[in-house]
UniProtKB/TrEMBL annotation, chain A:
<dbReference type="GO" id="GO:0005886">
    <property type="term" value="C:plasma membrane"/>
</dbReference>
<dbReference type="Pfam" id="PF00528">
    <property type="entry name" value="BPD_transp_1"/>
</dbReference>
<feature type="transmembrane region" description="Helical">
    <location>
        <begin position="29"/>
        <end position="48"/>
    </location>
</feature>
<dbReference type="InterPro" id="IPR035906">
    <property type="entry name" value="MetI-like_sf"/>
</dbReference>
<protein>
    <submittedName>
        <fullName>ABC transporter permease</fullName>
    </submittedName>
</protein>
<dbReference type="InterPro" id="IPR000515">
    <property type="entry name" value="MetI-like"/>
</dbReference>
<dbReference type="GO" id="GO:0055085">
    <property type="term" value="P:transmembrane transport"/>
</dbReference>
From TrEMBL, chain B:
<dbReference type="GO" id="GO:0055085">
    <property type="term" value="P:transmembrane transport"/>
</dbReference>
<comment type="similarity">
    <text>Belongs to the binding-protein-dependent transport system permease family.</text>
</comment>
<dbReference type="InterPro" id="IPR000515">
    <property type="entry name" value="MetI-like"/>
</dbReference>
<dbReference type="Pfam" id="PF19300">
    <property type="entry name" value="BPD_transp_1_N"/>
</dbReference>
<keyword id="KW-0472">Membrane</keyword>
<feature type="transmembrane region" description="Helical">
    <location>
        <begin position="281"/>
        <end position="307"/>
    </location>
</feature>
<dbReference type="Pfam" id="PF00528">
    <property type="entry name" value="BPD_transp_1"/>
</dbReference>
From TrEMBL, chain C:
<feature type="domain" description="ABC transporter">
    <location>
        <begin position="15"/>
        <end position="265"/>
    </location>
</feature>
<comment type="similarity">
    <text>Belongs to the ABC transporter superfamily.</text>
</comment>
<keyword id="KW-1003">Cell membrane</keyword>
<dbReference type="Pfam" id="PF08352">
    <property type="entry name" value="oligo_HPY"/>
</dbReference>
<dbReference type="GO" id="GO:0015833">
    <property type="term" value="P:peptide transport"/>
</dbReference>
<dbReference type="GO" id="GO:0005886">
    <property type="term" value="C:plasma membrane"/>
</dbReference>
<dbReference type="InterPro" id="IPR050388">
    <property type="entry name" value="ABC_Ni/Peptide_Import"/>
</dbReference>
Length: 291, 313, 557
């Protein structure tokens, strides 16, 4: 029991995660892979061999060759450069979605968990939002608002919010039954104070985990939106719209889908693995079983 | 029991109503003139007026909403702005392929995922457990269309076992149907299995730590009995739940898969409608799929009582 | 007190452990959890394994069943069942033997039965696994054993699910399941700890009755010396994985040889009430016709109404302790939570220092909160695990405008008073034991200088030795500060030691109310009498190693 003490301060889960004690090999590899991908996309403008938008009509749909390690696409653009640059926007959309949906979900979930009157209405609205298939909702939102980065982020964020709200609300409802919260009421602490000091820290660990899953699923959703023709306009490459453009040429040059697909999958795989590791480390129930 | 079902059905009504409100507002609250969005940039004022008239956009919002709901309740889903055919008949003609593939997916997924999850939980921290977990995290990490293209590449183009794209209805025979439907269903199964296997494993792990499992072992029950008679039935409710909530994932997956495999289902219909801004079709499709989702989850809710006697009343 | 004094020397040995050693092989240093345990149980004998939490008594029983958790391994010794060593047996061989020759019942009847299977099927399953009886015969035998454990209306219960039965009924089902194949040995791991005392008494006598009929050997694991006195033939006292002392029950209770055993016995609170303190006229809390009704609402389904507190009235004066005793569901915690205004009473008055707080709003309540503090049952959950002790202790005073430095100084002083070092201030709750945390929770309440302290089962989760220390602390604080205490408990022994006045509650209503000496010494209401009658070991004066009636100035019970 005493081997793995519960998190002592609000920041402790974060510290534990960074140190990753007793994590297996897989999450460590995942962390390295993710780091490499992130660095590569950040440094893309400097390390990419070509301008990702520069066309070369003489060298269309070529295989690997000197100067084009992964070959070229249907306009003769360098695939490697496009994949590297494309990751920037994909990752950015994912991170923005994760942050916005976690923050909004936290606020709405807190309100639902603490104010009984608001709870029923909020939760029915969340049920309704969850009932609308998220991909359909997202493509509809993008189709109506235009293919800008902002509308893509909004379109992916909105369907993610209900899950965060449910999570936060569940944590708050459990925590407010805890004797230490009742003791705080007895000690005369005001409701906002209890909410912020006692309850919010409880949501931190599950939100870190949920945030990583949202990050992964947002990158995935961006790709699907682009693939269906409802993503960021093709002037800016993203992993998703590179693959969407490659659809037409899939039979002759599957690499147009496979290379960005591989990058994207590796990236999401790493994030998901890190998310699982975080969950196992932060889940008090699993800890109890281990101790 | 009947009272329970009735209460569940009543509880669904406000959710459906809210879905309708959301879908309705989706178009109306979009910045800009909905008519202009629908008609595109090149529309003449006369065209815009015609669209506004057709959709009743000149009337106050609540009147529009009530009119629309009234039409829905009479079974009138509207008329496509593009093809001028009733939306209901468009849906009816495209429903078959989607339902067939979805059903095939669910059957294959449950048959695969539940045993995988049980095995992983039983042999916790063994090679089998890690294999199942690895598969499930992979299933979550590869975009469904990439999986689809990889399958086409391997099974159709390289091995030639299946046709590359297209669809044959069941009415043309089971084998021709399966030849076309198997790869799309397998593609969807990959992600669905990932979800269900993971949930099964997590819940079985939890149940296997319960006191009554210790009791079953203290009775001298063999592991098979412990797992399937004592544990799985207790883990059934959350597994069913995830099959239900995963239905949303399935709908999203169907949309993508139909595009990859060029299947004339309602998924493709919806994407085409959205891209063409055929708003009556969009409204009807989102509403219909949401309704389907709610219905599936309602049925699952009701089926809980078959597995857990505590939920009966 | 009539101890069991049967002689088993001639009976066959049912089970015997020889130098049984269990360790955690994968933990650094491979600590031993059991260090060479020798226990012998003969046919028809009841052996009690008694000890505090962490003593290794449950590990012993699981080792015998071959059901140790994966982390634990038997590293040495033998377990001989009727002369046959069980340790070399394969898993399949052990399975054959479980329930058939060695059966076990567990502490939590609420969770030990499978919630999704009918209880009848859970009993017949034992026969399905171990015999070739046809289904009709299995059912007949299940019904027969259910009758033997005195379940009412067996045909109906046979078809019931666990959640439709009471805790006592579920434990009877567990016993029926354990005994249906007439095993040689029955292991009972705290089988009555989760039950009310009146139910406990019935279950204990049932086990005794079935043992006499079937000649079963019983290994009974408990932390409760009262239960030991009631049922044991032979007692083994355990501590930290070792047997401290063993012998016939009367010898252990009358002439304990080891200091640990003496200390353990001495910390069992006596059932004879301590003398009441002088009454004063300074009323701090007056509860008048308090009612709490749950349910009755519901839009789609009429929720069942539960009258959890019916016209509860009492008065508490400065520096005195009022005990509210009763079994689960009696409404005692509802009353406590109403007084604390953690829930809203349906009707009635709660006058705290003269002003009625029963219907005040959250904001109106704040000035009164100070005077009314609480200590909860579960020491693991009553402190915020993320906060330092200092932050927890100063939370209240800071709310009422005390300066930070002043609050910190007071926190340091009070930690000393409750017997903790000052450096505890900057540590976190998980670094303390349950008893220490409960002291911290008490200090947190006392920081507010309350007039009234509500203690809701505040010592129930603690081992007896720790319990005694915490009760002493409460007594000391009360004398120094003149706090009035409302002490909610199910344990009559604890109530007798700390209360001046006692209220006995049953199904939401007060059935008896008066000075502790009268209520516990000469109860009037039949329910109070039944409660006292059911208290195990009530005739034995554990602290003085003698019968109650042997005390110099004993008054007839």
């Amino acid at each position: 029991m005493a081997q793995t003490p519960p998190p002592a301060s609000a920041m402790q889960p974060v510290l534990r995660l960074i140190r990753m004690p007793n994590a297996g090999l897989a999450p460590k590899i995942a962390a390295v892979v993710l780091l490499v991908i992130v660095l590569a996309t950040i440094l893309a403008p400097w390390i990419a061999p070509h301008d990702p938008l520069a066309m070369d009509p003489l060298n269309r749909l070529k295989g690997p060759m000197p100067g084009h390690p992964l070959g070229t696409d249907n306009y003769g653009r360098d695939i490697l450069s496009r994949v590297l640059i494309g990751g920037r926007l994909s990752l950015m959309i994912g991170i923005a979605t994760a942050i916005v949906s976690v923050l909004l979900g936290l606020i709405i979930g807190m309100i639902a968990g603490f104010f009984r009157t608001a709870d029923a209405i909020i939760m029915r609205m969340m049920d309704a939002l969850m009932a609308i298939p998220s991909i359909l909702l997202a493509i509809a939102l993008v189709a109506l608002n235009g293919p800008s980065v902002g509308s893509v982020i909004a379109a992916i964020t909105i369907p993610e919010i209900p899950r965060v709200v449910r999570l936060v609300r569940a944590v708050v409802l459990t925590a407010r039954e805890e004797p230490y919260v009742e003791a705080a009421i007895a000690l005369g602490s005001s409701m906002p104070k209890i909410l912020i000091q006692h309850l919010v820290p409880n949501t931190l660990a599950p939100l870190i985990v949920q945030g990583t899953y949202i990050l992964a699923s947002a990158i995935l959703t961006e790709a699907i939106l682009s693939f269906l023709g409802a993503g960021v306009s093709t002037e800016t490459p993203t992993w998703g719209n590179i693959m969407a453009e490659g659809r037409m040429f899939f039979r002759i040059k599957p690499e147009l889908i496979l290379y960005p697909g591989l990058m994207l999958s590796l990236c999401i795989l790493s994030i998901n693995l890190l998310g699982d590791t975080a969950r196992d480390m932060l889940d008090p129930r699993l800890k109890k079983r281990a101790g | 029991m009947l009272g329970y079902i009735l209460r569940r059905i009543l509880a669904v009504i406000p959710v459906m109503l809210l879905v309708a409100v959301f879908v309705f507002l989706l178009l109306r609250l979009t910045p800009g003139d909905p008519a202009a969005i629908i008609a595109g940039d090149m529309a003449t004022p006369a065209q815009l007026e015609r669209i506004r008239e057709a959709m009743g956009l000149n009337q106050p919002l609540h009147i529009q909403f009530i009119t629309w709901i009234g039409q829905l309740l009479r079974g009138d889903l509207g008329t496509s702005l593009i093809s001028n055919t009733p939306v209901s008949s468009m849906i009816a003609s495209r429903m078959g392929p989607t339902l067939a593939i979805a059903l095939l997916t669910i059957i294959m997924s449950v048959l695969l995922a539940v045993p995988m999850g049980v095995l992983a939980a039983w042999k916790h921290r063994s090679a089998a457990d890690y294999a199942v977990m690895a598969f499930s995290v992979l299933g979550f990490s590869i975009p469904v269309f990439v999986i689809g293209y990889i399958f086409i590449l391997i099974f159709s183009l390289k091995l030639g076992w299946f046709p590359v794209q297209g669809y044959t209805p069941i009415s043309a025979g089971l084998l021709p149907f399966l030849k076309n439907a198997f790869l799309p269903a397998l593609t969807l199964t990959t992600i669905y299995v990932a979800l269900i296997a993971r949930m099964t494993r997590a819940n079985m792990l939890e149940v296997l730590g319960e006191d009554y499992i210790r009791t079953a072992r203290a009775k001298g029950a063999p592991e098979r009995t412990v797992l399937f008679r004592h544990a799985l039935k207790n883990a059934a409710v959350p597994i069913l739940t995830v099959i239900g909530t995963g239905f949303a994932l399935l709908i999203g997956g169907v949309v993508v898969t139909e595009t990859v495999f060029n299947i004339p289902g309602i998924g493709r219909l919806t994407v085409d409608a959205i891209l063409a801004r055929d708003y009556p079709v969009i409204q009807a499709m989102i509403l219909l799929t949401s309704f389907l989702y709610v219905l599936v989850n309602l049925l699952i809710d009701i089926s809980y009582s078959l597995f857990d006697p505590r939920i009966r009343y | 007190m009539q101890f069991k004094s049967r002689n088993f020397d001639d009976a066959a040995i049912a089970i015997e452990t020889d130098n049984l050693t269990v360790a955690l092989p994968d933990t650094a240093g491979q600590p031993q959890v059991l260090k060479g345990i020798d226990v012998t149980i003969r046919q028809g004998e009841t052996v009690c394994l008694v000890g505090e939490s962490g003593s290794g008594k449950s590990v012993t029983s699981l080792a015998i069943m071959g059901l140790l958790p994966d982390a634990l391994k038997v590293t040495d010794g033998k377990i001989n069942l009727q002369g046959e060593n069980l340790l070399p047996l394969s898993q399949a061989q052990m399975r054959e033997l479980r329930a058939a020759r060695v059966a076990m019942i567990f502490q939590e009847p609420m969770t030990a039965l499978n919630p999704v299977l009918r209880v009848g099927d859970q009993i017949t399953e034992v026969m399905e696994l171990h015999t070739k009886l046809p289904p009709s015969e299995r059912r007949k035998r299940a019904i027969a054993i259910m009758e033997q454990v005195h379940l009412p209306d067996v045909e109906r219960i046979f078809r019931s699910y666990p959640h439709q039965l009471s805790g006592g009924q579920r434990q009877r089902i567990m016993i029926a399941m354990a005994l249906v194949l007439e095993p040689v040995l029955l292991i009972a791991d705290e089988p009555t700890t989760a039950l009310d005392v009146t139910t406990q008494k019935q279950i204990l006598s049932l086990i005794g009755e079935l043992q006499a009929n079937h000649g079963t050997a019983v290994l009974f694991i408990t932390h409760d010396m009262g239960v030991v006195a009631e049922i044991a033939d032979t007692v083994y006292v355990m501590k930290h994985g070792e047997i401290v002392e063993s012998g016939p029950v009367e010898q252990i209770l009358r002439h304990p040889q080891k200091d640990y055993t003496r200390a353990l016995l001495a910390s069992v609170p006596s059932l004879s009430p301590r003398p009441a303190r002088p009454d004063v006229s300074d009323i701090v809390l007056q509860v008048d016709r308090l009612n709490k009704i749950y349910g009755g609402g519901g839009i789609l389904k009429k929720l069942p109404r539960a009258h959890a507190a019916k016209d509860v009235s009492f008065t508490l004066t400065r520096g005195r302790t009022l005990g509210i005793v009763g079994e689960s569901g009696s409404g005692k915690s509802t009353v406590a939570r109403c007084i604390m205004r953690l829930i809203d009473p349906t009707s009635g008055q709660i006058r705290l220092d003269g002003s009625d707080i029963a219907s005040l709003s959250r904001n109106q309540l704040r000035p009164h909160r100070k005077k009314l503090q609480v200590v909860f049952q579960d020491p693991m959950r009553s402190l915020n695990p993320r906060w330092t002790i200092a932050r927890s202790l100063t939370e209240g005073p800071l709310n009422y405008g005390t300066s930070k430095s002043e609050a910190m100084a007071e926190a340091a002083r009070l930690l000393n008073v409750v017997g903790l070092p000052e450096d505890a201030l900057h540590r976190y709750p998980h670094m303390f034991s349950g008893g220490q945390r409960q002291r911290i929770a008490i200090a947190r309440a006392v920081m507010m200088r309350p007039d009234v302290l509500v203690a809701d089962e505040a010592v129930s989760a603690l081992d007896v030795s720790v319990q005694a220390q915490v009760l002493d602390l409460l007594d000391q604080l009360q004398q120094e500060l003149g706090i009035a205490i409302v002490f909610i408990t199910h344990d009559l022994r604890v109530a007798a030691q700390i209360c001046d006045d006692v209220i006995v509650m049953q199904r939401g209503a007060v059935v008896e109310h008066g000075p502790a000496g009268d209520v516990l010494g000469s109860p009037v209401h039949p329910y109070t009498r039944a409660l006292i009658d059911a208290a195990p070991g009530r005739d034995w004066d554990f602290q003085n190693f003698r019968k109650m009636s042997e005390a110099p100035n004993a008054r007839p019970a």
